[in-house]
Specification:
mainly alpha, 11 helices, disordered C terminus, 319 residues
Length: 319
Amino acid sequence: MSFVSQPWSNISVEFDDVGLLERVITFTLCTIPSCVFLFINGTMLFTLRSKSVLRDTCRYILLFNLLIADTAQLAVCQVLFLLSVCRITLTYPVCGMLTVFANITNVISPLTLMVMSLERCVAVCLPLRHAMIVTIRNTRLAIIAVWTSSSLHNIFRVILMLDFPFEDLDSLQMTSLCSDLAMQLGPRSKVYDNAFTVFLFATAATVIISSYVGVIIAARSASTGKASTLKARNTLMLHLVQLCLSLSSTIYNPLLVALLKIIQSVGFIRLNKFLYVLIILFPRCLSSLIYGLRDQTIRPILLGHLGCQRRLKTVPDSG
């Protein structure tokens, strides 16, 4: 999926117009938000493993998996971004490993959101059977299935990549910057990537919307608690927003290609940095911000870790 990295390899832009000072400023302005987001995500991951009530609750286990994927994705994106700013080219094998890892973690996010939506739907629609269906064992099996599905997708991408006649190249050193687009070395790779992206997000949207409809129907039942139903609806809406943000990042590369046709090189490069922070970096920190501030169990522990406080009384979860 083409939104995991910088697409500059397919864009003919003269970077020589950008002075050293502007490169340093760009490096700083894009690296600082990334480091802040990585710190927040890292603190959130530590928080989720710091208390047994968080370690042994299925939806927090799923959240931990989502944050692992988002944090790894954020780190790889930042590495590729810094390589592009510094104009450092890689070999095809090294670039291939980076983009494959980026794609594995990128696919995991919408798949995990699907599982989290189903868990909330079961909690509201089948409250008496929730404890039997949503167990720690089943949650771990679902996570294994998510990682396996993402890995199989990328294995197929690598197989398509191997069809490229590398033996005809004078060197395995890339002449362009490393990006996911640069590793789409044939028409079949591009067609497969586009088809898989559409299928993945269509499936995830269907599951989340269906779960939301199920919760709405359950809300009309007298046996269902209205407060828990409302919270589940809000959670599913947040999942849908997260999915839309992930989907919006798929327009990153096409948007840059379109902007390049109407904006001069230096202005394009500056706009690219802003879009990178807005579309690539920020959504990867959204899960930590949403759950860290909204969840009544996580919030006091997270704020305590961010404030370096040693002792905090945990507030029972009401979300």
